């Protein structure tokens, strides 16, 4: 009976893998599992090879994968989206924000409650994957076996910035619902969106395809923050994690969180139900957890993104939509790549030189000293950038909202052109951080301004610029412009 019980709760235990792996028939992939387990390597993996050495070309473009990618039913129930969407539904329906009261006039208590909900979600969800992988040893195929495990200092660093990510996600929810409650953005009410009607059917498809939108948004947002004058002050913080663990997934600079969460703002302007924006926000909040585990045999195994952390100049998107293949930045495995067309010049190094075959060969956990200073500024120019973008900008927003305006605005440029306070606030958040980085680049940075994309074709650069502006910067501008307009009503 005990063995039978353990078999049926396979997703929470580590069962012995058979030599030939064919899945479990029509239920293979249910809830994103592999052979009914949350702790198995994907079926395309050759278990005789070290983790990360099975080529991703086996699944990228495979008919079954594309069927799952575009079939809304499979997309919701046979991928990790099922778990993530459940978390979003718990937050939206279990801890709702009343559009007529709480959202329209958010108090400090309202803001505090939303921040706590999102932050606790991060601690619990990311913590679960960290504990089961690194303390319980339920995963045994690490991508990188050279390191012993996360250090105490790195864990403090990751926990600190992940908590900031949870806090900002809660603030984003308040801002989104505040704009909806103001009446500035039309939306489909819950009574219609979750009914057996045409609007209900449209809402179902939108829920199913949120992750498709996230694939596209993430690729272009990621390319944007890899440009030198943004990467140096912002995204480099995330790349301090070469050997990653779950909390590394949301370990980002606050400016990166700002543009990362803009995926939710982009879906506010088409009359959809508010749940779509909140579901998109929660998808961004929790999806980096298991994908940054550092292990191959885990739910949401993400060899694709692990390669990005190991080699840097590749795999900016996901294995879902082939944006990296389109732009020549796809790397399919550790070692020598047959698909990568970028400018990486360092001789390829095998990141998995050693190979741990059993979970019994444990490594030391949380080694090294604990230095809180590692979470702080590393240079005066970084301090200047952070003070402007992380202190001055929020203070500017707070002052503008409480004063219901910005001194000197509206400003009459010509008879036909007037710059308003909402436009100034929107521009400050949508375009301010990159402009600050660009200005600081002029004062002594030796790298080309577009590094590492300075050798890309002009066509690629134009596409990346237009897409990043449209999908990332503009939605951020529109949300904060909307917040200011709502405050001035």
Can you describe what's shown?
With 489 residues, this protein is an all-alpha fold. 50% of the residues lie in helices and 1% in strands. The protein contains 19 helices and two strands. It has a two-stranded antiparallel sheet. The longest helix has 31 residues, at 152-182. Residues 1-19 and 347-363 have low confidence and may be disordered.
List keywords for this structure.
489 residues; mainly alpha; two-stranded antiparallel ribbon; 2 strands; 1% strand
Distance between the termini: 65 Å
Order of helices and strands: HHHHHHHHHHHHHHHHEEHHH
Number of strands: 2
**Order of strands, widest sheet:** 1-2
Largest sheet: 2 strands, antiparallel
Given as residue ranges, the uncertain stretches (5+ residues, pLDDT < 50) are 1-19, 347-363
Strand content: under 5%
Mean pLDDT: 85
Helix content bin: 40-55%
Short description:
By secondary structure, the protein is mainly α. It has helices at residues 2-8, 63-70, 72-77, 81-94, 108-135, 152-182, 190-193, 198-225, 228-231, 254-260, 262-265, 274-286, 288-291, 303-311, 323-327, 380-403, 421-430, 432-441, 458-487, and strands spanning 411-412, 418-419.
Topology:
Elements: H1 2-8, H2 63-70, H3 72-77, H4 81-94, H5 108-135, H6 152-182, H7 190-193, H8 198-225, H9 228-231, H10 254-260, H11 262-265, H12 274-286, H13 288-291, H14 303-311, H15 323-327, H16 380-403, E1 411-412, E2 418-419, H17 421-430, H18 432-441, H19 458-487
Antiparallel strand pairs: 1-2
Helix pairs in contact: 4-12, 5-6, 6-12, 6-19, 8-12, 8-19, 16-17, 16-18, 17-19
